Amino acid sequence: MSKLRNTNTEFKQVVLLIEEARNRAFHKVNEELVLLYFKVGNLVSEKVSAGAWGENTVEELASFIQDNCPGLKGFNRRGLYRMKQFYETYSSPEFVSTLATHLQKLENGVNKIVSPLATQLQLVDSQVFKFVSPLVTQISWTHHLLILSKTKTVEEKIFYFIQCITQKLSKRELERQLNTATFERTMLSNPIVSALRSQLPQNLFKDPYIFEFLDLPDGHSEKDLEKALILNLQKFILEIGKGFTYMGNQYRLQVGNKDYFTDLLFYHRDLQCLVLFELKIQEFEPEFLGKLNFYLEALDRDVKRPNENPSIGILLCKGKDTEVVEYAMARNTSPAIIADYETKLIPKTVLANKLHQLVEQLTKEDFE
User: Fold this and answer.
1) In whole angstroms, how large is the CA radius of gyration of the chain?
2) Which of 30, 208, 234, 293 is most buried, most CB within 10 Å of its CB?
3) Could you tell me if 187 and 154 lie in one domain?
């Protein structure tokens, strides 16, 4: 019996080696495929831009490829123009310079990714291909198509592009982020941090959070909300971000001779700190902040380890008055965030309009 167990363990090692090799092969195939599409898009773009090729020529190319490579998919007229759009989008000066700036911030921050070329903010044409090509091969062609078809601005494209790389989003996860307007909600969340904005990383938190996966009745209690989130923990973590590790609910804190219980406690691997989510089913009230600060102080004194950063608190409320939030946060010294939550999807156009208004307001304030 013991020999059989040992044999099974050895067999599992072989299976693991096979799976690892398959994954490496799949990743390599994806790299070559995406790079091929990028190169073909480059060629088609240059020929069309120079006036050497017209629409009929692209049609002829598609037919020629089918004749010479029977059964090859993706190289019809529509596919070739997608490759052209792919190359032109990712190699445009605006995209390259904005992406380089974002990657430089990431290299200096908590999420270090990709290549040292990210620090080369002044790229000449000959460097563009070397800079962009190793980046675009890190995600699949399907991911690229989703980003290209469902985003408008360069900032939005880069946001989801970096999310795919850093969080290793699956196709389904990326679709959810796009459908729930994660970019707009993340951008809208930053002003709510108020005086503590400089202490917290940009583009990590959202406002509002969307919990459309919860099946909650009208008039639900905070306990109902907490239980529903725990039952859907995987989806909840996908919404708040993959860097979060769940530590427990109703986490017990003992202060003096009394016990206190927090709602949802997480640890963030990149921030290296505890993150506490406190749930409120009504609109924000200033007194909520006092209780949150009390919990954060207890966590920092009794739970936080010496090598970890100060704890962060997030109040999830069913609505808030922005002016009340600003007053409450003005003298607050703890890293705290106040955000809305919704149990139904918000139309992306509504969030996009809010973001547009915010940008206009901030631009106006800069000029005053």
Assistant:
1) 25
2) 208
3) no
What is the distance between the alpha carbons of residues 86 and 200, in angstroms, rounded to a whole number?
A: 34
276 and 138 fall within a common domain: no
Nearby residues of 71 by Cβ (< 8 Å), 6 or more positions away = none
What confidence score (pLDDT) does residue 361 get?
Answer: 66
Token pair of 144, please? 């690229």
- Please report the pLDDT score of residue 45 as a whole number: 94
Q: How far is CA 252 from CA 53, 212, 274, 324, in A?
A: 69, 29, 14, 30
- Which stretches within the chain are classed as H helix? 2-49, 55-68, 77-91, 93-108, 125-136, 141-150, 154-167, 171-179, 182-189, 222-231, 233-240, 286-302, 322-330, 348-367
Query: What domain range is 262 assigned to?
Result: 183-367
Domain count, the chain: 2
Report yes or no: 137 and 31 within 8 Å, Cβ to Cβ: yes
Q: Mean pLDDT over all residues of the chain?
A: 84
Residue whose tokens read 């601005």:
153
Q: In this prediction, what percent of the chain has a pLDDT beyond 90?
A: 52
Spatial distance between the Cα atoms of 13 and 190, rounded to a whole number of angstroms: 47
What is the Cα–Cα distance from 300 to 60, expressed in whole angstroms? 67
Q: Which residue has the higher pLDDT, 163 or 1?
A: 163
Question: CA–CA separation, 350 vs 200, rounded Å?
Answer: 26
